[in-house]
Design brief:
The structure is a homodimer of 364-residue chains. Chain A has 364 residues and is of the alpha+beta class. Chain A has helices at residues 22-33, 64-72, 86-93, 102-108, 111-120, 134-144, 171-177, 233-249, 287-290, 295-303, 330-334, and strands spanning 14-18, 37-42, 55-58, 76-79, 128-131, 148-152, 162-165, 183-187, 193-201, 207-209, 213-218, 221-227, 254-265, 268-277, 316-323, 340-343, 354-362. Chain A is globular. The first copy, chain A, starts with 13 loop residues before the first strand and ends with a strand.
């Protein structure tokens, strides 16, 4: 069965959201501001999005009957994470448009498919090779050198599902430690900056990108985003152009984030694509306070078939994640003039868990 | 039984909100952003706040058992409207702090008590006289002249519960048309501007006001707010000082709005208080897009016992209400670069009903 075509929604219509975490929560609030209702579908657990959704359903992504009932109760389906199982997406798409669509999901769920897609557009990436077994890993390491990074093709995030291969590593052991799953090996890129472009493409084909974000990670988790990124004008132009080409090649509808590396050779900066997230992205959280329309509003506008909003920036912005017990600083942040605190309403503080973020906007 | 003393809340605690309209809805979203949960209590009907509340209870404000159960399920109680019945407030306050408190409610629920309170602070109002019967109305009209405005002491809003007394009016008929309820007659003030000050006072006694708002009404309903108000520097200073004195005299906790008239005599502007709203206010909706912390966040901070946020303005702001079928313009507003659309999720468009608002911020 083919997916119904997307159509513009009206106020009062219902946005279905797969996933009950902070991204779903912020999407639901953006939808509410625009007079839309929301219905969040998520497995049992700590689902802070349920707190602000019009309606919520606890269900498993493998329960196709529950997914079908959910789809029939909403006007369009979107999601907060790219690992929506293909069968779930198909079960939903039989009833309602799923945006971003199945192609965006299948392209970005698999690191090998994603990198092949990016390369086919003539866009640079780090060097990579597919790794299907320990022997393949040995050949890839011989070709790409050390250090290099072994990543599972699927289901990785925040440093999960990856391992750095250094001199003396037991290659078979490293491969087995990632579960023996299909992987890719990526050559290490001597980047000077990690950046991302958060952008949106509408049902009408309009494209709008926020300014390039400069991202700083700690323990493989985003710690801090600065906007605008401190990169050359040429790299900025190239990064924005890459995001547009990717969105257009996917005939994309919604917000996407493209993570990139900036490398410098003989004083000139160039851009390599690291990965694509077919959803709102942590590096775009600053837009809630620092841009005219937030990435959450922008995504809702796009999947509702509405015109995109303004990505104009309100100043220089810094966003810091509050990870684990960093959220205990909430009282100090509340007392800091002009700091914008966002807490996600998660029941339990755990190490490495994103509990909230704080944005500081400095007028330019 | 005396009310429990307010105490600072922690993220995850529950804000109880009486009233399920757009003000409750925007309060609930502000609370969620700060990691607080919400529980909205409202009578059956169209309750758009339920869409974004963690939990909601349909109940009557006369049902003291339901109110007690609600109070026991939350950490603090606040409200979106000043006509909370005194018995309901007392039933709630037996279990949890009600903020703003009973004194703020009793002072502002009755136009005569409110004006006496303001005058006792040495703050000017329009001339007024109590009217308890048709004979009293005749005496008041003789004293204050025509045109003048007869208003019920209680339960008036958006022009409801009031009538203008012009030459030739049948005074007994006008009094009966307002239900024979206790009234006040107010002399007509030749104001040059209607303004308001939206301000907050925290549990720690801190006071913070937004810039003075200039308000334009149509058919007795707020149509448009401009910030900053186009009034003299002296009037601005006086208006802000009046709001602070009122908040301090009430030992107020939360956001309040003071509506004022600006009159001009021999080129000098002076300020008269029209009325006090012990809650977030329509003339403060611009703060969602035009100020560092919105009035909704500010109210939540205050009733949570947290430090007040920054009232810094982001530019010159215009807020327009979308009343009745004006909300049909939503699509044009979405297409206007930089316009910030807010729709309240009300099920039915009715004449005179506030369906949403739009804010435009122009950098200064």
């Amino acid at each position: 069965m083919s997916a119904p075509a997307p159509r513009p929604l009206s106020p009062g219509d219902v946005i279905g959201i797969l996933g009950g975490g902070q991204l779903g929560r912020m999407l639901a609030m953006a939808a509410a501001r625009l007079g839309l209702r929301t219905h969040v579908f998520a497995p049992a657990g700590d689902n802070p999005a349920f707190d602000v959704a019009t309606r919520s359903t606890i269900g498993d992504y493998a329960d196709e009957a529950a997914l079908a009932a959910f789809a029939q109760a909403v006007d369009v389906v979107t999601y907060e994470f790219e690992n929506v199982p293909a069968r779930a997406a198909a079960a939903l798409a039989a009833h309602r448009p799923v945006l971003p669509d199945a192609r965006a999901l299948s392209t970005t769920q698999d690191r090998l498919v994603e990198k092949d897609f990016v390369r086919a557009l003539g866009i640079a990436t780090a060097p990579y090779m597919a790794v299907d077994d320990a022997g393949g890993l040995a050949r890839a390491v011989a070709a790409l050198g050390r250090p290099s990074i072994l990543k599972t093709r699927r289901f990785g995030y925040d440093g999960k599902g990856q391992a750095t291969i250094r001199g003396g590593a037991d290659l078979g052991g490293v491969f087995r430690a990632l579960g023996g799953a299909p992987c890719i090996l990526e050559g290490m890129v001597p980047f000077i900056r990690e950046v991302s472009v958060v952008a949106a493409r509408g049902l009408d084909g309009a494209f709008a990108a926020y300014d390039v974000c400069e991202n700083h990670h700690e323990h493989h988790i985003l710690a801090r985003t600065l906007v605008p990124a401190r990169v050359s004008g040429a790299a900025t132009t190239a990064a924005l152009d890459i995001a547009r080409r990717i969105a257009e090649a996917l005939d994309y509808i919604g917000v996407l984030a493209v993570e990139m590396f900036i490398v410098e050779t003989d004083g000139a900066q160039s851009v390599l694509v690291n990965e694509i997230a077919p959803r709102v992205h942590n590096s775009g959280h600053w837009t809630l306070d620092g841009a005219a329309a937030s990435q959450f509003e922008q995504h809702i506008r796009a999947v509702a078939g509405w015109p995109l909003g303004s990505t104009a920036r309100r100043g220089r912005v810094e966003m810091r994640n509050l990870i684990g017990d960093q959220a205990a600083a909430w009282r100090d942040i509340l007392a800091e003039p002009g700091a914008c605190l966002h807490l996600y309403g998660k029941a339990e503080i755990r190490a490495g868990r994103k509990m909230g973020h704080v944005t500081r906007v400095i007028s330019e």
